[in-house]
Amino acid sequence: MFEDLLASVRDHPIAWLALQILLLILAVLVSYLITRTLLVRILSRAARVTGTRFDDAILGPGVIPRLAQVVPALVVYYGSTLLPSIPNAVLPALRRGVSIYLVLAITTAIMSLLTAIGAAYERYDPQRARVHPIKSYLQLGKIIVGLVAAIFVAAALFDRDPLLILSGLGAMTAVLMLIFKDTIQSFVAGLQISANDMLRVGDWIEMPQVKADGHAIDLSLHTVKVQNMDNSITSIPTWRLFSESFRNWRGMFDSGARLIQRALVLDQTSIHFLGAEEWEGLRRFALIDEHLAHKRAEFVMAADLDPVNVRRSTNAGMFRVYVRAYLRAHPHVRQDMPIQVRQLQPAPSGLPLEVYCYTATDWQRYETVQAEIFEHLLSILPEFGLRVFQQPSMEPKARPRSRLDTEPV
């Protein structure tokens, strides 16, 4: 009965062709299921045997399903020649289409594998991935795989030898160099940046020429993404980071100390020599007791001499000594790092007294400590008979109150 049914189907060309196509589709589905099952079992067992973590990337999403499509494509490619009912004019086009599909399946499988390797590298060794990122190399590998796939697709589409197309591309080297100029520059720059350890993911960098001031959140082949303090994203071409200068604050975070460098501008007309009463008033400051004891001996010895012929202490000098002692006693100032209080060059706006010390790198604590230091110095400044230079205010002064303001008419 089955033979009779088969013979009757053969008598109808369309039905016979439909049956052959149905059998081919069934063979494709079976081959896909078998191939995918075998690949999962074989690769899973190999990953367990080797024990390396990067083998697990092969089992990543998108790799096995795309690899499993290779065998069904081969079944269609070679099985189509066994179907006598397919017209000869259709067969070459079908085989070219299957060849293109085969190339695309392999290409997407390789690209998925590269993506899975990058994810496994970042997941299993985050510290090394931050110091030596491989994203740019993986992207370059994807570009090369894509170019090779494009050559094979063109060869299958036009029924030409891939080597012949490659030889034709050799004559277009200059054009290709022009097209991929940025890619080549970025790749070379990425190698130099990685080799010299110039930039890592998470580093805080400043590049004023492109208005970038924030943390590097992504290092890729063509661009470096920087998240600025206002949460905006600046994309910088990779080659610019090598050919132009930028500031990396990594050393500050590694040392655990951030520099405070700010100046108080003293009114120069308030600077004078210390008198006897002022000497007595300074004895209230415990931080400069030792310095006062040393200087007071000199002051007593020179008491009988003409003041113009001896070295005399000034209120600005005593204040400078007090500021240094205050920083030495401050609990949030790093004592194992340089502490300096110095005078800068006098200017028409006054005499700058610069404070130079280190504190914690945490932004909030840094600003708090810096504010506390200068709030204290500004408040204690009048005790030394000093004033801060300040531009005159343009606001009108309050009118003095008179008896007419308080007594009823």
From TrEMBL:
One Pfam family in the UniProt entry: MS_channel_2nd
Record protein name field: Mechanosensitive ion channel family protein
Membrane-spanning parts: 14-35, 98-119, 140-157, 163-180
All copies of domain Mechanosensitive ion channel MscS, residue ranges: 182-250
Principal place of residence: membrane
InterPro entries xrefs: LSM_dom_sf, MS_channel_C, MscS_channel_2nd, MscS_channel_C_sf, YbdG
Keywords: Cell membrane, Membrane, Transmembrane, Transmembrane helix
Subcellular location field: Cell membrane
Membrane protein topology class: Multi-pass membrane protein
Organism: Steroidobacter flavus
Domain (Mechanosensitive ion channel MscS C-terminal): residue spans on this chain: 308-386
